[in-house]
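pls design
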């Protein structure tokens, strides 16, 4: 919940390129073609992956801020 608030406050978003890279990682993990994985993922799953990627950016932001404040 806190990380989602950071995502909103900092206007963090995942790019289409980051989404494609994540799908490619998933495809490799499941030994499938990336296009097939994209087909299996619906719009809701894409939105969730994009939010997960944005939350990862929020985590990185918090970690970087903590390191700077040491």
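designed seq:
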């Amino acid at each position: 919940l806190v990380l989602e608030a950071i995502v909103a406050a900092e206007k963090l978003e995942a790019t289409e390129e980051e989404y494609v890279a994540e799908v490619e990682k998933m495809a490799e993990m499941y030994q499938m073609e990336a296009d097939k994985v994209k087909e299996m993922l619906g719009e809701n799953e894409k939105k969730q992956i994009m939010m997960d990627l944005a939350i990862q950016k929020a985590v990185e932001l918090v970690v970087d801020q903590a390191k700077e404040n040491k």
